[in-house]
């Protein structure tokens, strides 16, 4: 990963909300937040108590003075600064994953986008996957995490395009005097793995296969051996909406989707239904 100067990023106020109260076992005054990779690190530095961090959620107790809609103050890049970083990444031509400032960040270089179609047999008992077309390769830079704040810089056919999500208010700050040099900030992540039922996942795959139910992509076709058998499993009813432990039906409650479509499903709360996202995808081409 290349090194990027983030010292001239500007201070900003970012508003975010809890996604509900945490289970009682985490104690009183604890709330559940999305963007676990980000908030489990940034908020404890600002007086919050981290109770638990999982793959998708962070459970935190806010300071007593905080309530309702919360505000996070942190340094962020302008769209122009993010665009410059993306162009430098593109010139270098290497994908990476790491951190910029306090924010998680990653760059993907010229990702191939092969689209397949599902062709049913004459008796409609079997489905065969067939190459349909290939989209122009896509390069993208992500800074931050959706549901708090995120800058996404994407290039496919033409120049890079910048999209920003989150309720953010930037502030202009005076530049440091040339004689002032600041360094040595220590950054760390505190993460824990969130285990789901591996048995339910396997039964879902045995029934549905490993082809994405939204776009029809089979990762083995795109990445070769390293993609064989790899697929995300989406809970049609989010686990966060279940009240405690529950019995899952691997065939009717779970569905295989590729990582990209899985991310798009959760671009809103409540998540998009499989049929909704499939219609969006097909209407684009």
Q: Please, could you describe this protein's structure?
A:
With 285 residues, the chain is of the alpha+beta class. The protein has 3 domains: 10-75, no CATH class; 78-113 and 130-170, no CATH class; 198-283, no CATH class. The chain contains 6 helices and 13 strands. It has helices at 36-42, 79-92, 198-208, 219-223, 259-265, 274-283, and strands at residues 10-16, 31-33, 49-53, 58-61, 70-76, 96-100, 103-120, 127-145, 149-155, 161-165, 167-170, 232-235, 254-257. A 5-stranded antiparallel sheet has the order 6-7-8-9-10, covered by helices on one side. The longest helix is centred in the first third of the chain and has 14 residues, at 79-92.
Quick structural gist:
This protein has about 280 residues and is an alpha+beta fold.
Q: Rough shape?
A: globular
Residue ranges: pLDDT <50 for 5 or more in a row?
Answer: 188-195
Largest sheet: 5 strands, antiparallel
Q: What pattern of helices and strands is seen along the backbone?
A: EEHEEEHEEEEEEHHEEHH
Average of per-residue pLDDT values: 85
């Amino acid at each position: 990963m290349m090194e990027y100067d983030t010292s001239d990023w500007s201070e900003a106020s970012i508003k975010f909300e809890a996604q509900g109260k945490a289970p009682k076992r985490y104690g009183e005054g604890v709330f559940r937040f999305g963007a676990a990779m980000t908030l489990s690190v940034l908020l404890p530095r600002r007086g919050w108590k981290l109770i638990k961090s999982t793959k998708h959620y962070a459970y935190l107790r806010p300071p007593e003075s905080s309530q309702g809609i919360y505000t996070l103050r942190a340094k962020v890049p302008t769209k122009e600064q993010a665009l410059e970083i993306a162009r430098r990444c593109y010139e270098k031509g290497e994908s990476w994953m790491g951190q910029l400032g306090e924010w998680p960040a990653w760059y993907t270089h010229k990702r191939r986008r092969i689209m397949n179609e599902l062709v049913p047999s004459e008796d409609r008992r079997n489905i065969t996957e067939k190459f349909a077309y290939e989209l122009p390769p896509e390069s993208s830079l992500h800074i931050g995490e959706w549901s708090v704040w995120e800058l996404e810089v994407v290039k496919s056919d033409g120049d890079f395009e910048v999209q920003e999500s989150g309720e953010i208010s930037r502030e202009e700050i005076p530049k440091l005097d040339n004689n002032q040099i600041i360094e040595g900030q220590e950054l760390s992540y505190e993460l824990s793995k969130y285990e789901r039922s591996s048995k339910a996942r396997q039964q879902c795959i045995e029934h549905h296969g490993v082809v994405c139910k939204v776009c029809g992509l089979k990762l083995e076709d795109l990445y070769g051996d390293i993609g064989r058998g790899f697929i995300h499993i989406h809970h049609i009813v989010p686990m966060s909406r279940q009240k405690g432990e529950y019995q899952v039906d691997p065939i009717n409650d779970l569905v295989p989707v590729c990582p990209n479509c899985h991310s798009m499903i959760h671009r809103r709360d409540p998540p998009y239904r499989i049929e909704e996202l499939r219609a969006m995808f097909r209407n684009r081409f």
